[in-house]
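Homework help thread (please don't just give me the answer)

Our assignment gives two proteins as sequence + structure token strings and asks us to describe the second one. The first is just a warm-up. Here they are:
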Amino acid sequence: MPAQLLSIVVPVFNEVETVPELHRRVAAAVAGLGRHEIVFVDDGSSDGSWDALRTVAAADRNVRLVRLSRNFGHQVALSAGLEAARGDAIVSMDGDLQDPPELIPELVQRWRDGFDVVYAVRSKRHGETRFKLFTASLFYKAINRMSSVEIPEQAGDFRLMSRRALD
């Protein structure tokens, strides 16, 4: 049986300045975890992000690229990346480095411990207004009322899902 594959899915929109550092940190975080792929999804960037992603992909055979024809929005880009991911476990994270890639090994360890979904939950939300914090809290309360699966507050998109959970 081949070694398990880890996919990291990262939607990118107008992050040309962030792409090199994002790639460096993600690649360093997963270097000791075995087989992996980093799936960057360009969500119709207009700032040169696509060229920066192509440069990264040319230097790293573990990088795969998806380019959307226009800006469809973060969730559509994330969905496109999840669909393209081939991994046995898939980590989704934002491309603006608000999600620390250095936590990926901890998410992977929880998966190896038997969990199908592992959320990274923010302990602090720096620089956000009281109104934003209040509306975020309302969002999680509303979504949890409508869903049979509870999503922890402050979970965001930084999480790991097993292939079974994703499928």
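The one we have to describe:
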Amino acid sequence: MRWLLLPVEVKARGLEGRLLLGAHAAAQGWKVVVGRKSQLNSSVRDLPRGLYFDKSIQSLALNQIRYIKALGNTYAAIDEEGLVHEGGATAYVKRRFTHETLAETRPFCCWGDAQAEVVRAVEPSLADRVVVTGNPRVDLWRPEMHGLHRRADEVRADVGRFVFFPSNFANVIGADGPERTARFGEITGHYADPAERARFDRYLDLRAGILDRLGDALVTLARSLPD
């Protein structure tokens, strides 16, 4: 019996894609476990052995990967941030995986050929681990999946017409945003590279500047759509 373990780190971002993947696996005869990543990891010793499918293979995950494999699982992953290479291919490689994490992963699933070519070029000895699969999160955009998003009609019926403005300013908002980014850069070793640290600093400055202007932009938008 084949088991698929699907950890979910951020519910709003990853749950629906994981459920879609799990449904397809179940249709092919797999038994599927979907759960909050922290809870699934704390229980993984007691779960059936199978294919553990994670959302990234950054350097900080190496001990976790080896532990999960030591229990008898196969470790596979996709990089949820692999579609667009912020800072270019060189920065992507430094931030999103290492030789050690890729060596422990089979397969490493890619959004498309562009990402796969970057990974294979950097790690030609591990090219056999890299496969192009697409991402279940994108499959959620297919026409037959549109019913998932009808909840917007329910919100509109309750509050009237609205504009939904998604954003992500975790790095620069709140008491520990910049500090958390700095800790990440130091733990992963990125800040040891002056060029990479300067890129992080420019990134934070850019995000802070956008946030500063966003308040005015939203007020202007609201006034232009009074109903």
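TA reply:
I won't write it for you, but here's a hint about the kind of observation we're looking for: Residues 10 and 29 are 27 Å apart (CA to CA).
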